[in-house]
Amino acid sequence: MQLRYVRAVAVCLLLIAGQVSAADLSPQGSQDAVAALKNYLLTDSDSRQAIDKQPFATVPLTKADAEIARQLLWEDHVKQIRQSRAGEIRDRRLRDGQLEMPFFYEVFGDKPRTGRSLFISMHGGGNAPKQLNDQQWENQKHLYRPAEGVYLAPRAPTNTWNLWHEPHIDRLFARLIEDLIVFEDVDPNRVYIMGYSAGGDGVYQLAPRMADRLAAASMMAGHPNDASPLGLRNIGFAIHVGTLDGGYSRNKVAGEWGKKLDDLQKADPDGYVHLVKLQAGKPHWMDREDAEAVPWMAQFTRNPLPGRIVWKQSSTTHARFYWLAVGPDERKAGAEIIASYTGQKITVEAKDVPRLLVRLNDRMMDLDKPISVMAGSQVVFSGAVTRSIGTVARTLAERGDPAAVFSAEMEIRISPAR
């Protein structure tokens, strides 16, 4: 997993909300901005102008006021979701353009203090008649039973061979998670995906590219196709395949992925926790031996702000991964970033990423103290950053995830190493 280092152009590093020093931060101005936000949120949502156009959106905030702003905006988000999306939860049906994704769910166990777990379980089938995929969905509805949590089985919107890893699945699952956080009090740090056969294909593909939304994932009897395991660095990942499951060489490929994960973990011992289990004597159907994956996943809790990130874009690209983001022009299949932070220092290595957004909050480091950013051997930034309501609002609106909200943002422009 070697990356060529990059040379970043320091003069092109910009702070989205403007760079200020600690001396420039006005506690009174920060309080006034929060007061203006409160008044803004009292207005009817249909009549509000865009929050990023409001004068208070760029005012530098104190640490305490940034947290107040986050709480206010989260409460408003919950209110808006309850008003606008109640129908799709009631009808158990999401839409993405002309596509529809029905879903079934059942709730198990007592709700923990931090909220319920969510297990999204994908059925098999694939390039087959609708009736067969419907039957596979019916089977998936009751295939597994967690001790606690929301067990949710969606019906794929299509009947194609890649029914669980087409680009619309990422969007639909993102919306599904946002909805269940609000309507079923799901803990965003305890979301899991799993799938059987074609659903397992989906896990291989979706888990690396949606890892920042997940605590763990389990793949049953599937094939990875062109998926890469690099993005799995910060989640638990299990593979269950029967030793006799030779279709598409699933058993052989499972062993190969196990070796890849072993090598990744050896090179990075704090990441890539995994379990690969070839079920002895089992063909494609494993007689529910794979159900052990459910309690195995439940051991994991997501860290939404990991100190090290490995982000490799797949053919379905994403705009954001943990505390990093890219613009539309930088969303390129195969692009790769390794980024880490410790104390007040951030380091970045990148391939095929000319511009990068770095998001920060006070859980990561002390935003009242200077921060340095290095790209390769170059110090590209050293100074203060600005917390703002605009950044809080934007990063919350992107995800509907209260644990993954940021108050400061910086942009780094990168030129390739010569």
Characterise the protein shown here.
By secondary structure, this protein is of the alpha/beta class. The chain folds into 2 domains: 6-84 and 305-416, no CATH class; 87-298, Rossmann fold (3-Layer(aba) Sandwich). It is built from 9 helices and 19 strands. The protein has an 8-stranded mixed beta sheet. Strands 1, 2, 12, 13, 16 and 19 form a 6-stranded antiparallel beta sheet that branches. Helix 6 links the parallel strand 7 (186-196) and strand 8. Helix 1 runs parallel beside helix 2 (63-84) and helix 2 (63-84) packs parallel to helix 9. It is globular. Mean pLDDT is 93; it is low at 1-20.
Strand and helix layout:
Elements: E1 6-8, E2 14-15, H1 27-42, H2 63-84, H3 86-90, E3 93-96, E4 99-108, E5 116-122, H4 130-140, E6 149-154, H5 167-183, E7 186-196, H6 198-209, E8 216-220, E9 236-242, H7 250-267, E10 274-279, H8 293-298, E11 308-312, E12 320-321, E13 324-325, E14 336-342, E15 345-351, E16 355-360, E17 371-375, E18 378-383, H9 389-399, E19 408-416
Parallel strand pairs: 5-6, 5-7, 7-8, 8-9, 9-10, 15-17
Antiparallel strand pairs: 1-19, 2-19, 3-4, 4-6, 11-14, 12-13, 13-16, 14-15, 16-19, 17-18
Helix pairs in contact: 1-2, 2-9
